[in-house]
Amino acid sequence: MPLTVATAGHIDHGKTTLVEALTGKNTDRLPEERARGISIDLGYAPLDLPDGSRMSVVDVPGHERFVRTMVAGAAGVDLFLLVIDANEGARPQTHEHLAVLRLLGVDRGVVALTKSDLADEETLELARAEAEELVPGAAVVAVSAKTGAGLDELRGALANIATGRLREDAPTRLYVDRSFSLRGIGTVVTGTLWSGSIGEGDELRVEPRRRAVRVRSVQVHDRPVARAEAGQRVAVALPGVERSDVQRGDALVAAGAFRPSYRLDVALEEITDVPARVHVHHGTADVPARVARVGDRYAQLRLARPVVAARGDRVVLRAGTTVGGGVVLDAGPPRHANLARMEAVERGETFVHAPVEAGGDWAWSPEWLEEMRGELERAIDAADPLDPGVPVPAEPWARAVVPHLGLELRGAKLYRPGAVAELGARAEAAAVLEAQLGLEPVKVDDAALARFLEDRGRLVRVGDGYAISPAAYERARSVLVDGITLAQLRDALGVGRKTAQMLLERFDADGITRRVGDTRVLRRRGR
Fold it and tell me: Where residue 53 falls among pLDDT bands split at 50, 70, 90?
């Protein structure tokens, strides 16, 4: 069974050094990390256990400034490896990391007392007693990455608890913790696969960006696999996707299986004195939010950006430090929080918010419809004035819902009734561009603006990202003769070879000419 273990512990207690001693891999990959001698970002390594099985290790930073990175790395893991310097004992981030692990539901692990070769017997026993009190029931192993003492015992202790948590047979869901580009491959994203599986050719979506993607290849710890399973650390190659199009906090999910939401209803755990404004950590996302308390045990989290969540997921709440957490009761609740509804949901009663299919028809609550309308309206507000529409949701219920949204469907996009494209803040840029246009092509970096002006007959696009004036286009067209060559057009217009080439290619695209050898023959419409 695939398993992932996350390190935890205070800065300089030896997490990364211990992982390297266990796995042979230094997880500090950034030059700044190696120069400063501290972990800044997440690191990963495979760990072979005595029984022949393999475990994935996520190494997290220990500095208080990087707790949010630690939360991202620990989300979705099965076990923890708490690292405590035997000579220093538990420190502030030891306690905060433990609190985070509890809030994430990661309750099984092993404690490693590092640098034991530098501790006398009495100091080591005091450290052991403290660790046993901090994490009751967990094995405590004294180790030395320098001498190798205790490493085999630590591997054995991890093997003894190497039982994965129960993972439901749920649709594919992977939260991205890294996004980078590789020459010849393109964009690669990595993360811990929470549920489902991923294989070559799978059609998935990047949420909440609402982008469809196709999987080119999958690796687990640098080894190609036909299909990765839930619980594994996975690297996924996504062709045709820019690195900036998918970032930490995004989710790679099965199409139609999860709907991003700006609200979460949660049952609070452990710490109840939660401030009104917090950062919500879910999966690998870190999102500012307002907290609407509902009774003593519940809250509705109103997020600045949508997240992809499901009932039963866990969240961590931070406001400078970890202030609480909870379990998601409803990943898409109505706008108005309600105590009776939250209590009923926690008891297992079902409320219909998102569309539900029955007998070929779709049903939904008025609250959900209003929420969907509001989300689309906000998206339209943020849309480009040159194309003030938003894509129709890709979910299977979209065709049934669209007629009830009060929006116009044009092609694959939704618009406000009567909405038209406008220049808006680009009016000045358009005027400047038009003043520059003539027969010599002008480079236009704003492709959307170029399309807008061309649709209104105010320029003609030629080449790759260039434009000329409509009058110049008509002038060039007027000198065309049957069997004209590039050199003849160049001389007739007094332009360079590149400009003549752009014009001829545009005439070909418009169906005015067609190429025959080195000449252009006029089509009937061009005569």
Answer: confident
